[in-house]
Amino acid sequence: MKKLLDLISEEVTKAFVECGYDEKYGRVTLSNRPDLCEYQCNGAMAAAKEYKCAPFMISDKIAELLSGNEMFSMVESVKPGFLNLKIDDAYLAKYMNDMQADEGRFGCSKVENPKTIMIDYGGPNVAKPLHVGHLRSAIIGESVKRIGKFVGHEMIGDVHLGDWGLQMGLIITELKLRKPELVYFDEAYEGEYPEEAPFTIAELEEIYPTASGKSKEDEAYKEAALAATNELQQGRRGYRALLAHILNVSVTDLKKNYEKLNVDFELWKGESDAQPYIPDMVAKLKDGGFAYESEGALVVDVAEETDTKEIPPCIILKSDGASLYSTTDLATLVMRMEDYNPESIIYITDKRQELHFKQVFRCAKKTGIVKPETELTHIGFGTMNGKDGKPFKTRDGGVMRLEYLLEEIYEEMLKKILENQKTKENLDISMEEAQDTARKIALAAIKYGDLSNQASKDYIFDIERFTSFEGNTGPYILYTIVRIKSILGKYEATGKSIADCLGAMEAAHNEHEKDLMLVLSRFNAVVENAYEESAPHKICAYIYELANAFNGFYHGTKILSEENEAAQKAYIGLLCLTKSVLETCIDMLGFEAPERM
Ligand code: ARG
User: What is the C-alpha separation between 156 and 282, in angstroms, rounded?
Assistant: First the structure.
């Protein structure tokens, strides 16, 4: 469906052209004086310069031509030369009914030329527990992916595990110390390795920090870990088999955690998958004359003349021949181009990695690893801070593990629901439902709390505020949806059919109703814009506005006691549309609403 604003612009543009002015002056925008009008066109102000007359002479003519046009209930020419517009109520109701009939899309058409877009997010490091630092990447990435999918692109999410660094060597070293008898350490062994891992996830999570601690104090231990890392990377069989176990055990655990977050990935590739592509890539970079030796390391210059800051060369191999984070990312690009040939790749990490991605992107473009037209984008997010303004920590100052954070908020929500129950009529909520509801609200609180901020900004993770049922919060949005569900349930309980109300919207009966319709009408434009700017916060701002408009309507209108049947049907139809749009939006944000709360 066309955007309402475009339909209006077309109509006004036609009027400009009919009056002999250039079509470029007919652009209409949302009003910035909602007290005076709903839309405005300032084209006459600009046109006056070209046609050398007073602006109002133009705006007067346009207003006269448009008066009586069925699209508008008001077209006013206001000195010095503005056009103030209000949309006709019946026209708007028709647009609402069209949105409702456009099932699943609600007026938001799919793109005509879908792109293949890869999105690299999550980025957990294997064997280390997920912590809140990884929370933002997962939450933002999942939403950006869902928005892209909704718009119609093929989105391929890749978790890109950190599974290739020193942490692997550390684990192997510690394991060897504890269980030297394991067959993985016997270099003479040529048979098959056991299928079962020689450790559990709990052990693995304890082994890593222990090993990491020891390596900081014990030089010999660190040497051993580095050597093990190197041997692993050179392909030592037993170590490769251990790596496979570590991966398996971690990935099982990670999947469980991501599932709790309603986050899922199309691909579970990792840094280790890119390693086979390195030798060939390095050879090509050398042959192409891109890579040269500098202080022993192999580098590619990526500085550009227009740089205002110095951009250091991209290091491909260290002086000892070891590969780095950038090497892996470049090789991953080689792999991705080969496997999926995407038109665009989006990376979601902490904004402190900005320089890294700038170097990698430039290097990939310059050396032809990606095509000139391949879009490479880094979305760098800010830090999640505690109320003290410092990076979020547990109460005792440690790094907060993600599952504990979720659990803590869940417990709080459950308590709230059970308390609420005592004071409310829905006493019949089972424990099971209460738990399920608490999980949904907790997730909405966390995700909305994060996504409602522009990604690049730091924000304060304020559990109290995020879990409030009032204000700009996830729970408030859920509460609004639940309120609509409850009204619809009561309507049905009177024996009337909701299906009969679909498409039954009428010219607004009051100003709150019209406000709600106006907000609903912007759904397609908002989604398109959120996609273009990879900006879930725009969806959040929109649903907050929509929820407020709905609640304004709800408080200002008697719905269930309305006696005029047609009007009541129109209200119920509008409720259904509001609910659908809200649900579609929260699905793009990656959470869902319970039945009641
Ligand atoms: N594992 C990395 C980290 O924890 C994030 C990976 C991001 N993706 C990438 N292709 N570099 O910082």
Answer: 27
Q: Report the distance separating Cα 155 and Cα 141, nearest Å.
A: 11
Final residue before a domain boundary, out of 35, 67, 87 = 87
Q: Is 480 inside any structural domain? A: no
Tokens of 129: 């527990």
Q: How far apart are the first and last CA of the chain?
A: 35
Whose C-alpha lies nearest to ligand 1, atom 12? 123
CA of residue 160 to ligand 1 center, whole Å? 7
Per-residue pLDDT tens over the stretch 489-533:
999 999 999 999 999 999 999 999 999 999 999 999 999 999 999
Q: Name the nearest CA neighbour of 143 among 416, 367, 381.
A: 381
**449: in domain:** no
Distance separating alpha carbons of residues 41 and 9, to the nearest angstrom: 9
Per the domain annotation, does 34 fall within a domain? yes
Number of compact structural domains in the chain: 2
415 within 8 A of 176, measured Cβ to Cβ: no
**Domain range for 183:** 166-260
Largest CA distance in the chain: 94
Q: Is residue 198 part of a domain?
A: yes
Ligand 1: centre distance to CA 290 (Å): 25
Token readout for 577 is 């549309």
List the residue whose alpha carbon is closest to atom 3 of ligand 1: 123
116-120, strands of its sheet edge to edge: 154-158, 116-120, 344-350, 375-381
Whole-prediction pTM? 0.95
Q: What is the pLDDT of residues 61-73, one digit of tens each?
A: 999 999 999 999 9
Residue with CA nearest ligand 1 atom 5: 123
Contact present, 591 and 583 (Cβ < 8 Å): no
Please report, for the domain that includes residue 14, its CATH number: 3.30.1360.70
Q: Residue 138: left if φ>0, alpha if ψ -120 to 50, beta else—which one?
A: alpha
Domain-terminating residue out of 41, 64, 87: 87
Task: Return the ligand 1 atom nearest residue 332 CA.
Answer: 10
